[in-house]
Amino acid sequence: MKKKRLIEGLQRIVGKGYVIHHPDDLLAYEYDGSVDRGTATAVVFPSSTVQVSQVVALAHREGIPVVPRGAGTGLSGGAIAAEGSIQIALTRMRSILEVDAANRLAVVEPGLVNLDLSTSVAPQGLYYAPDPSSQGACTIGGNVAENSGGPHCLRYGVTTNHVLALEVVLEDGSIVWIGDRYRGGPGYDLVGAFVGSEGMMGIVTKAVVRLLPRPESVSTLMAVFPEMDQASAAVSRVIGSGLLPTAMEMMDRLSIKAVETAMGYGYPQNAGAVLLIEVDGIEEEVSESAASVKALCRAEGASEMRAATEASARARLWAGRKGALGALGALAPNYYLVDGVVPRTQLLQVLRRVGEVSQGSGFPIANVFHAGDGNLHPCILFDERQAGHTPRVLAAGGEILKACVEVGGALTGEHGVGLEKKAYMPLLFTNADLEAMLRLRRAFAPSGLMNPGKVFPGGPSCGEGFRPASVVKADQGMWV
Amino acid sequence: MRAKATSTIALRERLATLLPPEAIAPASDMARYAVDGVVPQAVALPASVEQLSAALRLANDQGWVVAVRGSGALMEYGGVPKGVDLVLGLERMASAIDHAPGDLTVTVGAGVRLAALQEALGKAGQWLPVDPPLAGRQTMGGMLATNLSGPLSLAYGGLRDMVIGMRVAGPDGVVTKSGGKVVKNVTGFDVGKAHIGALGTLGVVLEASFKVAPLPKKDVTLVALFDSLAQAIKASHELLAHPSAPQALEVVLMGMNRRDDEGRMRQPTCNLYARLLGSEGAMERRLADCSRLLVQSRAVNVQPAGSQAAGQTWEWLADFGWDPQAGSGLLVRLGCLPSQVGELSQGIEEMMLRELHQGSLVVGPGRGVAKVFMPGLKWADADTAGTAVEALRGLAAGVQGYAVVERCPLPAKATLDVWGNPGDGLALMRRLKEQMDPRGVLNPGRYVGGI
After folding, report:
1. Which of A5, A213, A314, B27 has its CA 20 to 30 A from that of A162?
2. A418 inside 8 A of chain B by CB
3. What is the distance of C-alpha A305 from the center of its chain?
4. Which of B175, B194, B214 is the last residue of a domain?
5. What is the residue range of A53's domain?
6. What is the pLDDT of residues A231-274, one digit of tens each?
7. Is the dihedral angle over the CA atoms A179, A183, A189, A191 positive or is it negative?
8. Which of B105, B335, B420 sits opposite A184 (nearest CB)?
């Protein structure tokens, strides 16, 4: 099919103003939040399930790959266009179709911004629990594709724990509902198998998600430790005591320095680690848990503690943590963020290994991470303008991932495999393991035209078109 | 499609070339391993993954129908098999429990009993917060295959929310893994989810890793008596909407259409059980809140249960309809949105009164579940069972819900579609089955839509 005819076909479906195909216009859609890029033949902006279905069916008839895209905040390249593909941007489909407060669920379109859902249902005393760092921009459809996490998933779980049912457009344009609104109906858990499939099994056009009641009381505690070892020990002590906080977040010496340089937040100069812990529930429970957490942190050598229960005071405690990644810009022009995950008892060992990688490679590495569930986020600081630095940074990232796998961890805790990590999949999975995943994919998308080239090793190398993540200004509030 | 199986003797002989004698059950034991009355030709009892893979591979090559078995506690679940050539029993498989208390994770073999796992976790002050039927008997593999959740799923979710990794043998004997041993992980597709509740139709679960939870410091149960089921369900929703909401809440309507010694119809009793799990400091207020709400919602009598009585009650609720002492009967699980459970269970109550069916009803208003158990041998009659199931499915359809027959005596069961309509996703489910078990040897005919 000639490009001109294809564009006309797409325009007939979504309207002339909703197809981008001029090379200059396509530039803006070459990127997501990751290091890769790719150019689509066209980007379309459907406004309904039927339009998505028609676009997908057209592409299927013509043998053209399709790539779904939400807000483009992904960090692993899941939304990067495949060669010659049609990119389907779902940002116009952003309605909340139904809020059922009695049953604590909502039916939403895929382009809805994560935070907008929580904001909208706040008057009913409800919220949507998964809170990825980019929740002010990222979409529910993207969250479903990546099975996104967030700091508060320690207690409340990740996206898959909050999705009840999905309307999905399959590769041939057919529209199918999977799952049910109450869980427990007969048949395979297709929703569970679909969530986290990185756009490779179908395009979500509606999602039924669970909402949680807002807790009666929340307490945020910030503990400053002279050494990272002490902070890590405190994490283990808290978990070992039988408490399950909603979040346990850590910053190391270098990230504290970055935050101090950029924001003048007032952390002690000699702080080796800052630990943020949040507990929620009914008032009596929260005050009891907060007291226990304080005592345990003191016992592990916390030099300073602050606590808050009121919303704006809690936000101030979180500010340093949330601004940390942006603040790294004060230390280096670029960073490469690695998303490894390890059993939480291995944290200290792996952090030491990260330190060795930093020494060996010569690049400073800052650690800002979800300590409670062992999800590391080492940020390798560098300057892309220095010749040869970029590949060395990637290699250092690979070393860290290997260290995670060696202690029983995994390649990615919440950012996805995408293009970024597909070459590393053999570290964790055999060919037979990957074949089992491909069988699952073939049940949904046998032709392989749905977001091809991601997750599975092989195909274009992940180093092609490398672009270091842009440095975000601290005041933009980007954090992970 | 599978080829017709070889003769019994040939089948056993072929197995004997691969497995040591102790891994093949004696021919005299076959009746013990029957699935819904269908007697297998052979039973393999592998003691290692290698033996299990070898037996599976042979069966797949030969087109023998394989039924996997744990302790056998829930073997009745699912449709009546069209035939069973080989039962694969996992009782002799290695039973390692790899518990990492500091990580709140555990990895456990499919043959391990849930009770043994809970005991091991309990030593470190942790547990897997599940209460499926016959928890004392069932194995981890059986629990994952059947996915029958209990009252605790109100607060803790289902197995799908706890499993973080899985190792599975495919019908060709090839072992694959998905996920891992970390609590937060998006590396690769979540294939393990497909196996939960799949009744062994996609593969044989060998091992699974779970997120576990700290054991709650306090565990208190309130019992409230109500004049009517409707009143109790209304009270349940009041409780569930409150910040002090219990972690498990079930309503029981017991002994419908039963006559006393003088032949008079007895009034069924309606009890609400609320289980509060959590920290010490909050318990006093939570109990006060819940008691107050129950009284305001016209509970006749509210009191805390003694810990022994509470334990027995929750076990009874979890085992409802499955307890062997209750004998055979028709057990149906219906589900819908929580807000419609009142309407659904009222419909069931009216149907039972109208038809004079003896039995009891257990309702989880927050879970959106109503389970009805009607004991007796009359349910072996196909017409009687079929009429009741049809009526219950009609009630479920009225609230956009479902009705699954969990137990039904033979021969009636063979005439029923125990699962009902799985909805829009059936075509995808068939495709998944074709991908995972292309020769159709794993438990064919026992799952939804004849899968």
Report:
1. A314
2. no
3. 29
4. B214
5. 3-89
6. 999 999 999 899 999 999 999 999 999 988 888 877 777 799 99
7. positive
8. B335
